[in-house]
C-alpha cells in the first residue's frame, strides 16, 4: 500500500515537472516570436522610407528642366461702351432774372450726363446760347459775334450770365425776405414752396426755420394748429399745416354748396317773365323762375315789381307762399 502511494506521488511530480518545462519553453518561444515581429516591423519601416526616397528621386529625374518664361503683361479688360442717356432739351431762357440759375444748372446737368456729345467747351457754349430767347438771345448773339472772352468756356459764360441776368435773392437778402414771408390769402402749399426755396439760400438752422414758418401761417390755420400737438421737426410742421389747410378748404367748399342749395330751394317759385320789362304774366304750372343768389342786383327789383303787381292785378296764385 505504501509502495503504491509512493509510485503515484512520483508519477504526479514527474507530470508537474513536464508541465512546467512545457510552459517555460512556450514562453520562451513567444518571446522569441515577439522579438522577431518587432525587428520585422522596423525593417518594413526602413523599406518604406527607402522606397519613398527612391520615388522622389525618380520623379525628379523624369521631370524636364523648365525654362524661365518671360513675364507677360496683364491684358486690360475690354472697355464696355455705354450709350449716353437721352435727355430732353432744357427749356429756353428769356432773360427772367429769377430763373437764370435754374437754367444754368439744367445745362450743367445736361453736359454731365452726355460727356461725349459735349466733349469741347465750344460745343457747350454754343448749345447754351441756342437756348436763349428774347432779350437773352440778343445778348447771346452780341457776345458770340464779338468773340467775347466769356465764350471761351461754359464756366465763364455761366459766370457772365449770372452777372448780367441773375437777380434771384440769395444770402442775406434771402434771409430778410424769409423773415418777412407770410402766407396771406394763398394756400399753405404755395407758402411752403416759397419758404423752402428761400430757406435753401439761407444758413439758418432747422429750429429757426421751424419758428419762422409757424409764425408766417395765416390766422385761420394757426388757430387750428395751436390746438394740436406740434411736431418737433420742420417737415412734420409743414405736413401738419398742409393737412389742416386741406381740411379747412373742404369745409369752406361744403359751406358754399349748402348755402347755394338752401337759396335755390327758398327762391324758386312758379312764374315767368312777360315781354314787358319787369312785369309778370299770370302763372302756369310749366314755367318757373329761379333766383340763385339774394345778392343778384335784379333780385330786389323783381321782388318790388312782383309786390306791386300782386296788389293791382288779380292773380291765380298757388297754395304755397311765394316769399
From TrEMBL:
Question: What organism is recorded for this protein?
Answer: Cyprinus carpio carpio
What sections of the sequence does the record tag as coiled-coil? Answer: none
InterPro entries the UniProt entry points to: Retrotrans_gag_dom, RTL1-rel
Pfam annotation, one family: Retrotrans_gag
* Domain Retrotransposon gag as annotated: residue spans: 127-218
Instruction: Show which residues constitute the signal peptide.
Output: none
**What ranges does the record give for the region Disordered, renumbered to this chain?**
66-85
Amino acid composition bias (Pro residues), ranges on this chain: 70-79
The protein, known as = Retrotransposon gag domain-containing protein
Amino acid at each position: 500500500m505504501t509502495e503504491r502511494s509512493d509510485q503515484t506521488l512520483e508519477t504526479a511530480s514527474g507530470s508537474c515537472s513536464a508541465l512546467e518545462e512545457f510552459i517555460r519553453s512556450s514562453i520562451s518561444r513567444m518571446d522569441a516570436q515577439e522579438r522577431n515581429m518587432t525587428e520585422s516591423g522596423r525593417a518594413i519601416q526602413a523599406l518604406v522610407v527607402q522606397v519613398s526616397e527612391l520615388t522622389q528621386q525618380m520623379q525628379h529625374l523624369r521631370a524636364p528642366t523648365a525654362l524661365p518664361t518671360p513675364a507677360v503683361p496683364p491684358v486690360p479688360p475690354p472697355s464696355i461702351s455705354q450709350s449716353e442717356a437721352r435727355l430732353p432739351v432744357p427749356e429756353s431762357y428769356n432773360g427772367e432774372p429769377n430763373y437764370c440759375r435754374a437754367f444754368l444748372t439744367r445745362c450743367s446737368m445736361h453736359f454731365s450726363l452726355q460727356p461725349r456729345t459735349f466733349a469741347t467747351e465750344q460745343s457747350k457754349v454754343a448749345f447754351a446760347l441756342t437756348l436763349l430767347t428774347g432779350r437773352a438771345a440778343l445778348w447771346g448773339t452780341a457776345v458770340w459775334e464779338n468773340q467775347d472772352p466769356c465764350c471761351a468756356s461754359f464756366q465763364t459764360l455761366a459766370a457772365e450770365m449770372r452777372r448780367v441776368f441773375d437777380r434771384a435773392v440769395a444770402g442775406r437778402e434771402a434771409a430778410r425776405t424769409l423773415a418777412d414771408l407770410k402766407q396771406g390769402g394763398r394756400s399753405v402749399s404755395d407758402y411752403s414752396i416759397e419758404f423752402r426755396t428761400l430757406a435753401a439760400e439761407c444758413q439758418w438752422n432747422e429750429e429757426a426755420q421751424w419758428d419762422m414758418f409757424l409764425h408766417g401761417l395765416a390766422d385761420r390755420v394757426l388757430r387750428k394748429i395751436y390746438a394740436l400737438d406740434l411736431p418737433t421737426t420742420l417737415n412734420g410742421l409743414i405736413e401738419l399745416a398742409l393737412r389742416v389747410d386741406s381740411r379747412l378748404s373742404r369745409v369752406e367748399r361744403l359751406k358754399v354748396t349748402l348755402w347755394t342749395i338752401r337759396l335755390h330751394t327758398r327762391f324758386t317759385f312758379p312764374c315767368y317773365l312777360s315781354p314787358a320789362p319787369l312785369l309778370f304774366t299770370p302763372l302756369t304750372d310749366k314755367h318757373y323762375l329761379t333766383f340763385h343768389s339774394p345778392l343778384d342786383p335784379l333780385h330786389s327789383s323783381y321782388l318790388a315789381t312782383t309786390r306791386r303787381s300782386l296788389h293791382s292785378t288779380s292773380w291765380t296764385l298757388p297754395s304755397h307762399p311765394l316769399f
